Every structure is written in structure tokens, then in C-alpha cells.
Amino acid sequence: xxxLIQLEEAALFGLGIYLFSLMDYAWWWFLALLLVPDFxxxxxxxxxxxxxxxxxxxxxxxxxxxxxxxxxxxNNQAIMLTGIILFSHSSMDRMFGYGLKYEKGxxxxxxxxxxx
Length: 116
What we know:
By secondary structure, this protein is mostly helical. The protein has helices at 3-21, 27-33, 48-58, 61-74, 77-95; strands spanning 108-109, 112-113.
């Protein structure tokens, strides 16, 4: 994967950490929740298509931003935290080469085939 993309994703992950630091949660919450979006992979038990859709919804940064902004608008830190975790997790995954999934299988992503 292109090093420039990895650097960009690392910077976005850093942004997620910064946004979390502005909240009133203990740091262990960030660590405990960071991998929760990967539960979306359970969709692959049903089919590649269901798995890809579930994974992509849980890893879509635009959705994460909308959730964060909704939490800001409603002044609800739990909703803001949800958006930050989704955003941070997606950036972390992409930093490691795990992109949004195509329906033909888990290893086929918009960043290329995993393991190649």
C-alpha cells in the first residue's frame, strides 16, 4: 500500500484520538471500544454480500462523521463517542490496509486484495 495513504490514515487516527481527548471519558473506554466495529464481520456468516454491507456500514467514515455531528448537535456524549470510535477504527483499519469490502469476499477491498 502506498505510504502516503498510510500516513494520511495515521493522521486521521490521530484526529480521532484528539477528539476523544476532548471528552469526559477515561482513556480505557477508547481502548475497550476501538475494536467493536469489527463485530460487523459477523455478517459474513450469512453471505459475502451481507458481510460486505455490514462491514462497510460500520466502517464508513461519512456515517461516523454524521453520528459525531448528531451527538454534537444533541449535546450527547455517548453519540459523539460512537462517531469517534467508528471514525478512529476505520482510520486505523485503513492504515493497516483493510479497506471497504467488495461483495466477492472479505479479502477484496477498495485498497486492494488483503494479503497481496
